[in-house]
Write a structure and sequence with these properties.
homodimer, about 350 residues, globular
């Protein structure tokens, strides 16, 4: 028997094995319709049921009230970086951004194309290893159009464990790399969104959850496809949606429910992360660059004290089936992305390999 | 043995059976990497090869020179309706649109948000059954920023069989529903594009082919994701692309090559369309609303002389495995979408059923 392969890619990322097998089994003939769902009209009953169930399951899992719309859009988080200021900026009010990493910085840069967007915090001088408490942020005015955060910083391995609040100011979060990793209070957010390809499904669909009254800010002059109300008014079917990607998200949501919902995800994710962080903290060979208070449950970044060994580490890990452990090209080192779908056995095997590699190279 | 099922959906649409079986076979373990391509990093070697081959195969099939960029984008043709004027309008010059159907009309409406966009023709008063020769169009000035057409009108079953030209004015075509159905001269176009979900693959990716010098018109103030140059400069990987949809397009392109390229597609498509149109023309029970000179090879619209029988036609056809024959909700009647992937046997079975239905209801 060959070794099982564990895919630690930051995204597109590993999906639950059960989901992959189910999608494969019904790929060519979807539940008896005689052809694949990927070939089926989005206006037909098969897909309508898929998208309706995906929305209902997401609402149930995350506790999303009717005052919010759930949208399935294209274009990735990067398109949201433009849609958010286009739709939600308010004349005369600043939009506030916490710059906690490359993706937050891109969102801020994009917002500046549209109006008064300001950083209330930047972790850049610390190589984004730290998210300072929001009590220390500057310019946190109650007169802001919104406050924007990136809840988990995939590249740097940091994550918010409390969300900032300004009374009366909508909080917007890019949750691309940690959505549904743990319970959270939807009501603290005016909007949150996630490119699916990390914790929700495959690349090609972005889930947007937005408070309906907030979407009403959008001006009619916004291009049709970039106006949230277009998609709210048409149930995400103004034009042909990414049918297969939404179907896969639907399967992942059902998998989360079967596993016990967000409480179960949280428990499993904490156990996996603890395994890795505890090992790193007790090791003489490895260290984690992220500030311990801001460590991510999803993306564990780590380095070898002897960085010259890192290419060998990545290569040898890959050879035994531990794939895609190379850190982001902008920071180097290693990164283990351990999203909901990563089994604990994968992390155990990684820790075992890390111990073995350290011993051999001591 | 159950009847084979033929899916005449206008999009998402039937895909070649060989493509569906191959995608299913390698879904869970892609060519030995130990996991699915849908789970693989877009920065890894497996996907890079997929997107490179898809581009190379499209260039080979359609004869696309190096002076054009090939892009794989998200957001569907509807997003192109905004990107085209944002990127390609020129101050002081009109953008010309031929309004030959609902999608062309939407493109024109969107362009009006950005500047001086004008209809040079409208088929609306004829219920879009006719595309008048471009020699009869009005306002065809050589001082235009571009001339825009929709090469095939899915809803109405009409198609251009010659493309209009204005010397020195880039021609832009929405080819969503007829790309690669027949040979065509790329050099006549400044840009053409297609949502994949009709003739190229699944929903979720839009292929854009644009002359590089034309893309240089785009102003730097355009939102990053909506600027063609962003995607030209990054090989369609500024952000995570729709990996699986691009892979499926790649499989369809290889299938087209194996079948003999565009000449073979053309021959097969003409044979299928002739079967249907000849039957309709010789029938007392059916008629085709589209002007014969503008009939589409891809979407055959037809009516029963007794429209009261249409619901029964659609229901009985579905019962014997002829699916999604209902016309677009805005026009009623029937529509058989017979894209590249529809086998001739499907059209033969449809014609047989049409004859049988007419006889029973004479």
């Amino acid at each position: 028997m060959t070794n099982p392969v564990y895919n630690f890619s930051a995204g597109p990322a590993t999906l639950p094995k059960e989901v992959m097998l189910k999608a494969q089994a019904e790929f060519v003939d979807f539940r008896g319709i005689g052809f694949g769902l990927i070939e089926a009209s989005h206006r037909g009953p098969a897909f309508q049921q898929i998208i309706d169930e995906a929305e209902a399951d997401l609402r149930e899992i995350a506790g999303i009230p009717d005052t919010y719309s759930v949208l399935f859009l294209q274009g990735g988080a990067s398109t949201q970086f433009a849609m958010i200021p286009m739709n939600l900026m308010v004349d005369g009010k600043p939009a506030l951004y916490a710059d906690t990493g490359a993706w937050a910085a891109k969102a801020l840069k994009e917002a500046k194309l549209f109006g008064d967007a300001r950083a209330v915090f930047s972790g850049k001088q610390d190589n984004y290893t730290t998210i300072a408490p929001s009590t220390e942020w500057e310019g946190m005015t109650g007169d802001a159009a919104y406050l924007y955060i990136c809840s988990n910083n995939t590249i740097f391995g940091t994550q918010y464990h409390d969300v900032p609040e300004i009374d009366g100011v909508p909080l917007i979060a890019d949750m691309s790399s940690d959505i549904l990793c743990r319970p959270f209070d939807v009501n603290k957010f005016g909007m949150f969104f996630a490119g699916a390809q990390k914790n929700l499904g495959p690349a090609g669909v972005t889930v947007v959850v937005i408070r309906k009254d907030l979407a009403e800010r959008a001006k009619a002059s916004i291009p049709t496809m970039l106006n949230y109300n277009t998609h709210i008014d048409t149930g995400s079917m103004f034009n042909t949606p990414p049918v297969f990607a939404i179907y896969m998200v639907g399967l992942v949501l059902k998998w989360i429910k079967e596993k016990g919902g967000l409480a179960a995800m949280d428990k499993a994710n904490r156990a996996k992360a603890a395994l890795l962080y505890d090992f790193i903290d007790h090791s003489d060979a490895y260290y984690g660059p992220a500030n311990p208070a801001n460590r991510s449950l999803m993306n564990v970044t780590f380095r070898l004290n002897n960085p010259d060994l890192e290419p060998a580490f990545i290569e040898q890990a890959s050879a035994i089936g531990l794939k895609s452990l190379k850190g982001h090209r902008s920071v180097g080192g290693m990164r283990a992305s351990i999203y909901n779908a990563m089994p604990k056995a994968g992390v155990e095997k990684l820790v075992e390999f890390m111990a073995d590699f350290a011993k051999k190279n001591a």
